[in-house]
Write a structure and sequence with these properties.
The chain has ten helices and 18 strands. By secondary structure, the chain is α+β, with helices and mostly antiparallel strands. The longest helix has 18 residues.
Length: about 300
């Protein structure tokens, strides 16, 4: 490039201002916050994909979390974690496991179309899902079972805890009646210690619901726990397991389950997936004082 050419180019730069080109208009319209929908990693020979099928902002979080603590304590804990006290962000994260021979979906979100879309974004079709495992039967876990009155995962068999199914079948719960009852003949049931398939074992963690289950993955000397709704928030529930959560049906039992399972995860350094943890929902547990601390996954499971 000659000196003359270079100077001509430099001289042209100020002219852009005269043409009405500003930084804002050059950048285009603001797109808003964006969260990825799919996250994949390995656990031994299993391929594990977390799927974000919904997220929403909720006001007044202390009406949900920390119901048994003073507002000042709630505010202090929140401030220390750099999160506000007037709003919280909820995440809804089913998990897809490819064992090499089976494609297993854990929980189905609130809406069948959104969950099927996330499965497709992960590279599969809804019809490719062999098994759907329900950790428990709150609406945000069973709402995606049906789409417009038909099975969302038409080729799947269904697995859930016996205690959980028995509880809800004895109620007039509309979500259960509309989404689970039509599939009862295709459903099989587990108790604590039961096996979904080789390397995936049910572990009872009752309290959130009467039959709430977690599921331990164990493959090629690696483990990971799908802990569903054991803790519904990484600070206000996981870090403080004795804080009451509105959605826990038996609050004392739920707190006991949290202490038991989180203690095991911290001691054994086993990673976990939490259905309501900030997406991608994968992390570790450390002990901290009388409670625990959430350590988000970085790259450990990518190695």
């Amino acid at each position: 490039m000659s000196r003359r050419t270079m100077l001509a180019g430099v001289a042209a730069i100020p002219m852009a201002a005269g043409l009405g080109i500003t930084k804002a208009s050059a950048a285009g319209h603001m797109q808003g916050a964006q969260i990825p929908r799919v996250n994949r990693f390995g656990v031994g020979d299993f391929e594990v994909t977390t799927l974000l099928v919904g997220s929403r902002t909720v006001d007044d979080p202390q009406t949900i979390f920390g119901m048994n603590v003073e507002a000042d304590s709630f505010a202090a804990v929140s401030s220390e974690a750099n999160i506000p006290t007037d709003k919280a962000q909820f995440f809804f994260t089913p998990t897809l496991i490819n064992t090499g021979s089976e494609l297993i979906l854990f929980d189905t979100g609130l809406d069948g179309a959104a969950t099927a879309q996330a499965v497709e974004m992960a590279g599969y079709s809804a019809d490719a899902v062999n098994h759907v495992v329900l950790t428990h039967m709150h609406g945000d876990h069973i709402g995606g079972l049906m789409t417009d009155g038909a099975e969302t995962f038409a080729n799947a068999a269904y697995i859930t805890g016996q205690a959980e199914f028995d509880h809800w079948s004895g109620t007039d719960n509309e979500g259960f009646a509309n989404n689970v009852t039509p599939l009862a003949e295709k459903m099989s049931f587990l108790a604590d210690g039961g096996s979904v398939t080789s390397g995936i074992t049910a572990m009872a963690a009752f309290g959130h619901t009467p039959g709430h289950m977690t599921y331990m993955l164990d493959s090629n000397d690696q483990q990971l726990l799908i802990f569903a709704d054991l803790a519904n928030h990484y600070v206000w529930s996981l870090a403080h397991p004795d804080w009451e959560v509105r959605f826990d049906m038996d609050k004392a039992a739920a707190a006991a389950s949290r202490r038991n399972v989180l203690g095991m995860l911290a001691t054994d350094k086993v990673p976990f997936i939490g259905y309501h943890m900030p997406f991608p929902g994968v992390g570790y547990v450390d002990t901290r004082g009388d409670g625990f601390h959430y350590v988000p996954h970085s790259y450990q499971l990518l190695l």
